């Protein structure tokens, strides 16, 4: 491909191109990272402090929380959807899923139960195993998929479905429904140890599979494996004792470990979407940013607003950001790499699709992978991405 294409396949699509001699300088110390995380938990509603979560919830609060977790599906079935086999989702099926929320079973006072995920599992907007695809023949985007949870993740159980097959849980970043069989109820002390362990391994690969007992468990980057012994563990190349140092080069190294991975909406297909990609890169260094792109934009401690700026000024402002900064447009987030040899700002991101002009008409094209690009690729309005950006932010 030519160097001026939006999605280069040359040396710019390698981590080595972007690493700098000064890039291994520590950007934030461990104590500074903990301070950033405390501020985010206090100021951003999208990050839940589970160890300080109320152990008792009222009927009204819990009903409202379950309703809010349904998002667009709270009031009605918002469109035409299809299950995994292409079968249409009927309104009666949606009504059954609503009924399975068992709102009438919620008591005046409701005690939270401590639990851990047994394996990687999906967090759903409604308690149903049915997928809701809006395209009968393109089944990659389940509208009920909230996110994916890592093995051994601490969650609080707040309610159970009418059929007892799902629990409504709150996690560090989300609330929704998880299969009951994927959770293990535990005690408060074990829950605390898994919520904020002081001795742990961190996953530094894009993802790894570990054989533990009779199961093989999938962990994504930034997952933590609590250690029960203070002895020095045997470390392989995919794990580190504690989090990685927070450096600009590590933002680059970690991001490129995902290069070429498929796009996984809400963690589907054992992969990442745009905000899971950036969250995993950040959490591999201990930085706890929210799960969704719009919340990540609100969370950035340092930020430059790009709205209402002309194209040239947008480029000028982006060039002020350091490598590892996050660049936002509505519904999407990208990680900034820096300027290439020609002074063009470049990013790496989990891209779903882009638009291109074909015979004078805009045509949507799916790429569905983690790739390197410039900011010129077209949006659905026909504008270049640079002109749809809202901000750039960093820690």
Full CATH superfamily name of the largest domain: endopeptidase domain like (from Nostoc punctiforme)
CATH third-level topology of the largest domain: endopeptidase fold (from Nostoc punctiforme)
> Architecture of the largest domain, CATH level 2?
Alpha-Beta Complex
What is the CA-based Rg, rounded?
A: 22 Å
Which bin fits the share of residues in helices?
10-25%
Helix/strand/pairing category? alpha+beta
For the record, the CATH class of the largest domain is Alpha Beta
Mean of all residue-level pLDDT scores: 95
DSSP summary, beta strand count: 22
Given as residue ranges, the uncertain stretches (5+ residues, pLDDT < 50) are none
Distance between the termini: 34 Å
**Principal-axes shape call:** globular
Question: What would you say this structure looks like, in words?
Answer:
This protein has 395 residues and is α+β, with helices and mostly antiparallel strands. The chain has two domains: 11-43 and 247-394, endopeptidase fold (from Nostoc punctiforme); 50-196, SH3 type barrels (Roll), CATH 2.30.30.40. 20% of the residues lie in helices and 29% in strands.
Q: How would the blueprint of this fold be written?
A:
Elements lengths: L14 H4 L7 E3 L1 H14 L12 E3 H11 L21 H9 L9 E3 L1 E5 L3 E4 L20 E5 L4 E7 L5 E5 L4 E5 L3 E3 L2 H8 L4 E4 L3 E6 L2 E6 L3 E3 L12 E3 L4 E2 H9 L17 H10 L9 H7 L2 E4 L5 H8 L7 E4 L2 E8 L5 E14 L2 E13 L17 E4 L1
Antiparallel strand pairs: 1-16, 2-3, 4-7, 4-10, 5-6, 7-8, 8-9, 11-14, 11-15, 12-13, 17-22, 18-19, 18-22, 19-20, 20-21
């Amino acid at each position: 491909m030519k160097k001026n294409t939006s999605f280069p396949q040359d040396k710019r699509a390698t981590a080595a191109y972007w690493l700098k001699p000064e890039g291994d300088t520590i950007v934030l110390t461990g104590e500074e990272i903990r301070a950033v995380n405390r501020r985010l938990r206090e100021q951003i509603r999208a990050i839940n402090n589970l160890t300080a979560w109320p152990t008792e919830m009222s009927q009204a609060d819990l009903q409202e929380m379950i309703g809010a977790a349904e998002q667009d599906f709270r009031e009605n079935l918002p469109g035409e959807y299809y299950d995994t086999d292409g079968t249409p989702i009927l309104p009666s099926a949606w009504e059954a899923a609503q009924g399975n929320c068992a709102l009438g079973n919620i008591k005046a006072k409701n005690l939270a139960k401590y639990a851990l995920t047994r394996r990687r599992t999906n967090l759903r907007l409604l308690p149903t195993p049915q997928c809701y695809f809006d395209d009968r023949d393109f089944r990659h985007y389940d509208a009920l998929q909230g996110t994916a949870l890592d093995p051994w993740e601490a969650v609080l159980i707040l309610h159970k479905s009418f059929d007892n097959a799902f629990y409504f849980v709150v996690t560090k970043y989300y609330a929704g429904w998880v299969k009951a069989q994927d959770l293990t109820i535990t005690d408060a002390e074990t829950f605390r140890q898994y919520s904020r362990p002081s001795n742990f391994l961190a996953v530094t690969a894009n993802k790894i599979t570990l054989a533990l007992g009779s199961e093989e468990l999938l962990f994504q980057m930034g997952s933590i494996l609590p250690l029960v012994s203070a002895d020095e563990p045997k470390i392989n190349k995919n794990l580190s004792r504690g989090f990685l140092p927070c450096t600009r080069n590590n933002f680059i190294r970690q991001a490129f470990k995902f290069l070429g991975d498929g796009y996984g909406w809400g963690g589907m297909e054992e992969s990442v979407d745009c905000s899971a990609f950036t969250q995993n890169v950040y959490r591999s260094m201990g930085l706890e940013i929210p799960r969704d792109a719009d919340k990540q934009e609100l969370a950035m401690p340092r930020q430059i607003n790009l709205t209402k700026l002309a194209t040239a000024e947008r480029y000028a402002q982006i060039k002020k950001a350091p490598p590892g900064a996050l660049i936002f447009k509505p519904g999407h987030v990208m990680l900034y790499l820096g300027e290439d040899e020609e002074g063009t700002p470049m990013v790496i991101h989990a891209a779903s699709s882009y638009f291109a002009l074909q015979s004078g008409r805009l045509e949507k094209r799916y790429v569905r992978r983690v790739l390197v690009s410039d900011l010129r690729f077209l949006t659905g309005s026909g504008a270049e991405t640079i002109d749809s950006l809202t901000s750039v932010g960093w820690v």
